[in-house]
């Protein structure tokens, strides 16, 4: 009987030409591991306020000077079982027929409401210009399909967030086998579905502690100090004609976006005044100006931007501290 039921389900899938799951514009998307879960998080989950208990603390990873970057600390909530129903599936892919079966299995998962997190080779992605195509392994989020295409989103190697369609044939070619010498001929994916019975709520005590940890960090690579140290290092590199890591600058800007949304939520909950939100809006705009300055440096190569960016960052961080202290002490 189970075999007959599975056969009926697969036949139904094959007759379904299009299933596209809801997808949202993530408020944080500088890195895949943050943007993707935010992309599939329904607005009611955000409105509950629980996400504002985190995403305030920053960390600056500078162990490797050649690959130093900013990030949110404790930023992954994929694994939170109160938020997502999750799974892991491995498909044997010894031949083309196995890959066709895998594709039908993925469609079944999408129809069942599961978003798919998979590892692929960007070489096959049609959004990539032909002259830039080469092997590049990273993750993608799959959220739908139609008769001919798979719907996906995420970062490409150009550093921009893309939402696009890829032909089913290209998609099957793009998916990569497990990067494990002991396991050959297997493609594995992670699946996530937002929980219907989601009941997380905002707790000001936790949210306040998170903001205080940002305001009064334990060392120079956390909190406010992390942003200051990052821009110090990068501006010094610019003066020597070095590169400016735009993704980390974007993270600094998105931190201000998230903080402003947090403050707006707190003002609606009567925890702080609307005036504080209006004041913090200027901090967000200031960091957008910094992001634009970094982009201009990238285009012009004029090292004079370094001093402007460094001075602007220092001024904004001082003002931000005053505003946030008023909020947590008010």
Overview of this structure, please?
The protein has 330 residues and is α+β, with helices and mostly antiparallel strands. Helices cover 47% and strands 18% of the residues. The chain contains ten helices and nine strands. Strands 1, 4, 5, 6, 7, 8 and 9 form a seven-stranded antiparallel beta sheet that branches. A two-stranded antiparallel sheet has the order 2-3. β6 and β7 form a beta hairpin. α6 runs antiparallel to α10.
How would you sum up this structure in a few lines?
With 330 residues, the protein is of the alpha+beta class.
Features:
about 325 residues; alpha+beta; seven-stranded antiparallel beta sheet; two-stranded antiparallel ribbon; 10 helices; about 20% strand
Give the CA-CA distance, first to last residue: 64 Å
Structural class: alpha+beta
Strand content: 15-25%
Low-confidence stretches: none
Chain-wise SSE layout:
Layout: H1 2-15, E1 19-20, H2 32-39, H3 43-47, E2 58-61, E3 69-72, E4 84-92, H4 96-111, E5 115-121, E6 137-145, E7 149-155, E8 161-167, H5 168-174, E9 186-194, H6 204-215, H7 223-239, H8 246-268, H9 274-300, H10 305-329
Antiparallel strand pairs: 1-6, 2-3, 4-9, 5-6, 5-9, 6-7, 7-8
Helix pairs in contact: 1-4, 6-10, 7-10, 8-9, 9-10
């Amino acid at each position: 009987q189970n075999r007959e039921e599975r056969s009926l389900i697969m036949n139904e899938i094959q007759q379904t030409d299009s299933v596209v799951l809801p997808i949202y514009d993530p408020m944080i998307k500088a890195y895949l591991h943050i943007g993707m879960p935010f992309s599939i998080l329904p607005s009611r989950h955000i409105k509950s306020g629980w996400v504002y208990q985190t995403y305030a603390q920053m960390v600056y990873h500078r162990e490797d000077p050649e690959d130093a970057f900013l990030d949110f600390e404790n930023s992954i909530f994929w694994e939170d079982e109160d938020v997502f129903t999750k799974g892991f599936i491995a498909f044997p892919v010894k031949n083309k027929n196995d890959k066709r079966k895998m594709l039908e299995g993925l469609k079944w998962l999408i129809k069942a409401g599961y978003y798919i997190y998979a590892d692929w080779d960007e070489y096959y992605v049609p959004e990539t210009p032909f002259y830039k195509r080469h092997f590049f392994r990273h993750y993608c989020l799959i959220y739908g399909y139609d008769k001919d295409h798979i719907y996906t989103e995420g970062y490409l190697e150009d550093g921009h967030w893309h939402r696009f369609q890829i032909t089913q044939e290209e998609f099957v070619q793009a998916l990569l086998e497990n990067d494990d010498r002991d396991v050959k001929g297997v493609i594995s994916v992670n699946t996530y579905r937002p929980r219907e019975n989601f009941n997380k709520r905002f707790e000001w005590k936790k949210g306040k502690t998170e903001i205080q940890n940002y305001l009064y960090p334990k060392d120079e690579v956390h909190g406010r100090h992390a942003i200051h140290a990052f821009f110090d290092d990068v501006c010094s590199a610019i003066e020597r004609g070095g590169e400016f890591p735009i993704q980390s600058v974007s993270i600094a800007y998105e931190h201000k976006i998230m903080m402003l949304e947090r403050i707006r939520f707190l003002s609606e909950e009567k925890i702080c005044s609307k005036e504080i939100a209006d004041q913090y809006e200027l901090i967000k705009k200031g960091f957008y100006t910094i992001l634009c300055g970094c982009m201009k440096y990238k285009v012009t190569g004029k090292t004079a931007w370094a001093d402007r960016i460094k001075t602007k960052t220092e001024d904004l961080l001082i003002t931000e501290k005053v505003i946030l202290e008023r909020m947590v002490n008010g």
